[in-house]
Amino acid sequence: MKVHGIDPSPERQHTAWADFLRSQADALLACDFFEVRTLTGARLYVFAVIEHATRRIRILGATAHPTGQWVAQLGRNFVMDLQETGSTARFLIRDRDAKFTAAFDAVLSDAGLRVVTTGIRIPRMNAIMERWIQTCRRELLDRTLIWNQRHLLHVLREFEVFYNGHRPHRVLRQAAPLRPLPGPGAGPAPITRLDIRRHDRLGGVLREYRHAA
């Protein structure tokens, strides 16, 4: 809101947006495309969605040609998945990429999701999604040679399972999106013998550590 014809400071705008993200975390989703190059130089586009509150990631698809029809179909698949899991999300944050068509927005609107578009050249408005993309690059894509689209989808599915079911998150107090911490009354079982087993994914690019049963 302008005061005496002067726009509010950027810091004030950012604070208001941060307050919105914190207060509406349980109702917020965010999505974005990111680009991956194969060994042959082919360009593939990956579409992913993250839940703000739980940090659960969903990798919806990857293609060399992200047509409007393809994106709209991914939107339909995503909506069905939300309905099956009983999601209470009400907002979806996205940028102004031309890949997001009116048909995509209509699919979400029909499902009761309000699309919130970010400002022009303000990636911090979708910071949680952007941060996940950086994590995906640092922990997976920068350490993996991608052969083709099929290979890319395979490694991304493995990372999705690892990220949602095993990788600890500081914001979740070291829980994982689909692996909550024990309840308040559930104390840790006494450890009589330290026996840690490692499970490798993708040839050791991703590693999971668990106590032996």
Question: Short description, anyone?
Answer:
This protein has helices spanning 10-23, 68-85, 102-110, 127-139, 149-165; strands at residues 28-37, 43-51, 57-63, 91-94, 114-117, 196-201, 206-211.
The helical percent reads 25-40%
Q: Please, how many helices?
A: 5
> What's the number of structural domains?
1
- CATH architecture name: 2-Layer Sandwich
Instruction: Assign the structural class, choosing from mainly alpha, mainly beta, alpha/beta, alpha+beta, or little secondary structure.
Output: alpha/beta
CATH class: Alpha Beta
Strand composition percent: 15-25%
Assembly of the depicted chains? single chain
What order do the helices and strands follow?
HEEEHEHEHHEE
Apparent shape = globular
* Low-confidence region ranges: none
On the 0 to 100 scale, the average pLDDT is 84
Strands of the largest sheet, in order across it? 3-2-1-4-5
* CATH topology title: Nucleotidyltransferase, domain 5
Question: What order do the helices and strands come in, and which of them pair?
Answer:
Blueprint: H1 10-23, E1 28-37, E2 43-51, E3 57-63, H2 68-85, E4 91-94, H3 102-110, E5 114-117, H4 127-139, H5 149-165, E6 196-201, E7 206-211
Parallel strand pairs: 1-4, 4-5
Antiparallel strand pairs: 1-2, 2-3, 6-7
Helix pairs in contact: 2-3
